[in-house]
Amino acid sequence: MITLILMSPREVAVKLHQTIRTLNNSRGFSLIELMVAIAIFSIVVTTIVAAFQSQLRSHITQQQVADMQQNGRGAMALIKRDLRDGGWPPNGDANTSITTTPTSLIIVNDFHNGLDDDGDGVIDDPEEKWMPDGDSDDFGERIVYTVNADNELTRNGEPLGLNIEVMDIVLVNAAGTPAAPDDMVAAQISLIARAGEGATPSVLSNKHTDTREYRNKQDEVILPAQNDLFRRMILTTEVKLRNYDVK
Ligand SMILES: [Ca+2]
Ligand SMILES: [Ca+2]
Ligand SMILES: [Ca+2]
Ligand SMILES: [Ca+2]
Fold first, then answer.
1. In the predicted model, is pLDDT for residue 176 greater than 70?
2. Which ligand gives the minimal distance to the CA of 88?
3. Is the model's pLDDT at 186 over the cut of 70?
4. Does the structure show a pLDDT above 80 at 165?
5. How confident is the model over 25-71, as pLDDT tens digits?
6. 192-202 burial, b if ≥16 CB within 10 A, otherwise e?
7. Ligand in nearest proximity to the CA of 93
8. DSSP letter at 44?
9. Residue 107 C-alpha to ligand 3 middle, in angstroms?
């Protein structure tokens, strides 16, 4: 602009003429310019998509981990409750027991008598709980937990919708070592919860190889390293068996 002001009118006219000619002569983009533009555009788009995918992956992974934690805690709460009250009445009778296998937990109680003790028309309802009759064939007296081949935790055959791969229960004495039924006072529960459903984890979750070896409180391996893509967590707790070794 300043240059134009300092120029004589004639010089300005020449300059304008030259500029107009230059503009008229431009022939749009060359092929190379176009290719460079496309390349830059692709890089920008790829970067944006990658950032978005990465965010989505961490979101899905976080969601899976949260679900897994919730599953594990939910299962633990149920098993703890049943074990704590397991083998009722205190010090049991001939029929009551708590037994385990590698994939199941069987709790047998005697807290009902098959009669409508409070006369409300419902036999063995919760209000009339804790009335043993010397056998364990009444409502809710036998509780069986199993983990099936689909990693589903079931209670009395009813799937609880929880993705639990391992349920390990060790019945222990006061010293914390595995005990016979007449000696046991507590149960050590270990649960391994797994994230994701189906045979393979979601392609959208963050890549993760599980090389961990999982052990219970006795330091026994309850799940060797799987070296697969699933995320897992182990929950371990100990619950006192209220009805055993009651002095
Ligand atoms: Ca009974
Ligand atoms: Ca009965
Ligand atoms: Ca009743
Ligand atoms: Ca009853």
1. yes
2. 1
3. yes
4. yes
5. 666 778 999 999 999 999 999 999 999 988 988 888 888 889 889 98
6. bbbbbeeeebb
7. 1
8. H
9. 23
User: What spacing in Å lies between the alpha carbon of 132 and ligand 1's midpoint?
Assistant: 5
Nearest by Cα to 53 from 195, 203, 209 = 203
The band of 20, judged by pLDDT with boundaries at 50, 70 and 90, is low
Ligand 1 centroid distance, CA of 90 (Å): 14
Taking residues 75-101, report their average pLDDT: 93
pLDDT at 225 over 60: yes
Confirm if 145 and 154 have CB atoms less than 8 A apart: yes
Predicted model pTM: 0.78
Q: Burial of 218 by CB count in 10 Å (0-12 exposed, 13-18 middle, 19+ buried)?
A: middle
Q: What is the pLDDT, as a whole number, of residue 18?
A: 78
Average pLDDT over residues 178-193: 94
Question: Which pair of tokens denotes residue 44?
Answer: 């920008």
The two tokens of residue 84 are 């704590």
Integer Cα distance of 96 and 107 in angstroms: 8
DSSP E strands: which ranges in 132-205? 142-147, 152-155, 158-172, 186-194
With b for 16 or more beta-carbon neighbours within 10 A and e for fewer, the 139-164 pattern comes to: eebebebbbeeebebbbeeeeeebbb
Asked if the bond preceding 126 is cis, omega within 30° of 0, the reply is no
CA atoms within 13 A on the CB side of 117: 14
Q: Are 144 and 156 a contacting pair, CB within 8 Å?
A: yes
Q: Two tokens at 156?
A: 């009395």
Instruction: Strand 142-147: give its sheet, edge to edge.
Output: 97-101, 104-108, 142-147, 152-155, 158-172, 186-194, 232-240
